[in-house]
Amino acid sequence: MNIGRTSEVNILFTNIGRRSYLVDFLKSNPNFEGKVFVSDCDKTASGLYSLNDGYFLLPKPVDDPELYVKTLIGLCIKKDIKIIIPIIDPEIPILSKYKKEFSRKGIYVLVSNQKVINICNDKHKMNIFLKKNGFDTIITYLDINAFKKDLYARKIHFPVFLKKRKGSGSEKAQRIDNMKKLE
After folding, report:
1. Average pLDDT for residues 102-130, to the nearest whole number?
2. Where in this chain does the record put each PylC N-terminal domain (predicted)?
3. Where do the structural domains in the chain lie, given as residue ranges?
4. In the prediction, which pLDDT does 6 show?
5. What is the number of other CB atoms lying within 10 angstroms of the CB of residue 22?
6. SS (H, E, C) 136-154
7. CATH number for the domain running over 6-117
8. What pTM was estimated for this model as a whole?
């Protein structure tokens, strides 16, 4: 895809939240001559009111992905936005799914392909991928019986760390100090 000279390309950061520093960083680059737009689904997101060239309130991507994509494409065409940089995890699989549709309109979305996203969004799949590719990783369990077996065999010991298989950040993450707390 030919998007022209990178320095003159208009860029959109979606779901900016409070990450106005991304806009500041791009705008402070003396070689960047394009415009920086931001969007969010929450009108109180502080990043909407940063030193950008315009902002858009969009529907939540997960509520109606097709409406989100259709709205986003329309805004990109209207404002001549050629690059979309998604900021939050929930929208990444949606934008990846519609990546070709954006591309047909001359818009480049900075997301990986669906296969990579599916691995990265699943901690167990990511652990398997890392081991398969020679990276040292922590022991993980999906099955409590396998965990108990290794615990009683003294291959592992408390405390352990419990985290949701899917999700971002430290959502519902907790330190577990004994079997009673785990069960």
Report:
1. 95
2. 11-109
3. 6-117, 123-182
4. 56
5. 19
6. CCCCCCCCHHHHHHHHHCC
7. 3.40.50.20
8. 0.82
